[in-house]
Design a protein that fits this description.
The protein has 390 residues and is an alpha/beta fold. The protein is 43% helix and 14% strand. The structure holds 4'-deoxy-4'-aminopyridoxal-5'-phosphate.
Length: 390
């Protein structure tokens, strides 16, 4: 029996063998020609994956929170007003982070599992004076997806920079930086980008770079300061060596491999695949009698699913049994409902077989926890969803 379980949490995820091979290859100098080429290519490919014609990509050693920190440190000056479109745990974090840089933060909140409407966002923006609006594309604590295209249009109308936390969305959800007018989109390597944890990834629009260039106060973080990193990113893209801090050499090689795979699949096909995996997973959960945290189907992300436990099922016991059945899932994260739901990630390299195996393991665990249902009902619904989709 293979002693290996399937990692189906909302990041880190299962990674492609070629990506892992790049990570395990002998480390080169960060000034070696083959590294300069890989770094330069990865920067160019980031623009294509973020669907940005003219954005400035940044690849830094760090996690997604560093990508958020970088956006905050470089774009906020003390006293700036920021509107946080809040759908859960990670927007709370973003607000807290921005306050560290002196922002005056207003949260536009919704019920847990809900999202502020575009009308509400417009009314908030009309109140005026916001330099920046942020939204979390997919809040990983609730599985709620925000209408980033709609919010971007509002940001343009009210002349605010629009910063999107795309940690649980980039390369899995539809996110069109240039077409929609997004100023910053950021993510981390361990999610749908498909590289083990360790890279903070961000693309900034020319408008965002101009706001940065016009700062009156110095950036409050030494490491995150674009003044230090912009020459490095420009140099590598021009295939020249440069140094500010040692890049995560192997992770950058791995990133370049993964971005190449993503572009070989094609962004539209990749988004469609994530939708199909999501629909099958959600139909499987529904057939087992489980609701979801997102209050409406239209609010539900495609990179993850957040099912609510049936009556009487205890989270820790359930998760232990799913794990014994070979699949690793995540518990609840949103403080208000933590014990009421669990989370399934289905992004990046996830396949139809992974979804079917996950639903089957969930059935095993539910059965062992004493929940009554028709065995196979979830797997059947998921399979039907796949067979009916193109
Ligand atoms: N934003 C979102 C939406 C996330 O899902 C996460 C990580 N789960 C983060 C930010 C923070 O990323 P990291 O844990 O890599 O710092």
């Amino acid at each position: 029996m293979k002693d290996r379980s399937l990692l189906m949490i909302p990041g880190p995820i299962e990674f492609e063998p070629a990506v892992l091979a790049a990570l395990g290859a002998p480390t080169t100098s960060h000034l070696a020609p083959n590294f300069i080429e890989a770094f330069g290519q990865a920067l160019e490919r980031m623009r294509q994956v973020f669907l940005s014609d003219d954005g400035q990509p940044f690849i830094l050693a760090g996690s997604g929170t560093l990508a958020m920190d970088t956006a905050g440190a470089n774009l906020v000056e003390p006293g700036d007003r920021v509107l946080v479109v809040n759908t859960g745990f990670f927007p709370d974090r973003f607000g807290e982070l921005l306050e560290r840089y002196g922002a005056q933060v207003t949260h536009l909140r919704a019920a847990v599992g809900g999202r502020p409407s575009l009308d509400e966002a417009e009314r908030a923006l009309q109140a005026g004076g916001y330099k920046i609006m942020t939204a979390t594309h997919v809040d990983t604590s609730t599985g709620v997806i925000t209408d980033v295209a709609g919010l971007a249009a509002l940001a343009r109308r009210y002349d605010a920079l629009f910063v999107v936390d795309g940690v649980c969305s980039v390369a899995g959800e539809e996110l069109r930086m240039s077409e929609w007018g997004i100023d910053v989109a950021l993510t981390a390597s361990q999610k749908a980008i498909g590289v083990p944890p360790g890279l903070a990834l961000l693309v900034a629009s020319p408008r965002a770079m101009e706001v940065f260039a016009q700062r009156k106060t110095p950036v409050g973080s030494y490491y995150a300061d674009w003044t230090n990193w912009l020459p490095v990113m420009r140099a590598y893209e021009a295939r020249k060596p440069s140094y500010f801090g040692t890049p995560a050499v192997n992770l950058v090689f791995a990133l370049n491999v993964s971005l190449g795979q993503i572009l070989a699949e094609g962004m539209d096909r990749r988004i469609a695949r994530h939708r199909s995996l999501s629909q099958a997973c959600k139909q499987g959960m529904q057939a087992l009698g489980m609701g979801q945290v997102p209050l409406e189907p239209a609010f539900a992300a495609h990179t993850m699913t957040a099912p609510r436990f049936p009556q009487g099922i205890q989270g820790p016991e359930f998760l232990k049994r799913v794990s014994a059945a070979g699949v690793v899932l995540a518990g609840g994260l949103h403080p208000a409902i933590k014990s009421e739901y669990f989370r399934i990630g289905h992004m990046g390299a996830a396949s139809r077989g992974d979804i079917l195996a996950t639903v089957a393991a969930i059935e095993t665990a539910l059965s062992e926890c004493g929940y009554a249902f028709k065995p196979g009902a979830g797997v059947e619904a998921a399979q039907r969803s796949f067979l009916e989709s193109k």
